[in-house]
Amino acid sequence: MGKNAAIAAVTLCILKLGAEASRVDARSMQETAPQQAPMDGERMTIFGEPCAFPFEFEGEELNDCLLFDEEEWCILPSGEWAPCVPVGGDLIEAPMSPQTTSDIVINEIVHKPIPEYHNKDWIELKNLGNEDKDLQGYVLKDDKLDRPGFVIGETSECRGMGKSIIPANGYLLVIRDDDCGFTFGLASDEEAHLFDPEGNLVDTLNWEMGDAPRGISWGRIPDGTGAFTNNFPTPLEANRLLEGA
């Protein structure tokens, strides 16, 4: 499915326009002042849900989507943020549940491994919270969203600290074909999604051909909160930007 696949809020590609959105939750939206989009007409989210107009942002009542990080956003009736359908655009083909506000994020991936860093594809999750979190029942998927995916902590051998429990402000590394790892491969033009046990999208990212070449990871800078870029592979450690990147 690749770059133009449907990945839901709050990191998404909009299929028709192929525009890439950045992961933003309600907390970081409140910390950045976007501009009001000067557009008219009824608006809805890419999930087909109506925006909750009017909504209040930083003391101002708004009746249209907000322009933020080259994407438009509005608030759902549930109070969560979601991307708006672009003017003249289409709904995504396979809507998923709106992304929840979570302290668990996908932090770093390697899709072209080298022996020094496990020699296998891997996905690193980070806990931004101040308490340990048991991810038993959470599901990792690639772009094949119609397939079951990898269930964290599905068996008793794969539960506990470092297997299903991610420490406060710490990391959990899930390695392909490991005893407690996923079985799907990460391609050069690919996606990764994390769902909670109820099927809600927790976090998602995508990368395209040329991102994270062999021996390089694709990770958040700053660690845990920033946009994805090329990194030194740092499994279970804070991400580190490549020199000169």
Provide structural commentary.
The protein has 245 residues and is mainly beta. The protein has one helix and 20 strands. The chain has one helix at 26-31; strands at 13-14, 19-20, 35-36, 55-57, 60-62, 66-68, 71-75, 81-83, 104-110, 122-127, 133-134, 139-141, 150-151, 165-166, 171-175, 190-195, 201-207, 217-221, 227-232, 240-241. The strands form six sheets. A six-stranded antiparallel sheet has the order 15-10-9-18-19-20, with no helix packed on it. The protein has a four-stranded antiparallel sheet with strand order 3-6-7-8, with no helix packed on it. A hairpin with a 5-residue loop joins strand 7 (71-75) and strand 8. The model is unreliable at 1-41 and 91-100 (pLDDT under 50).
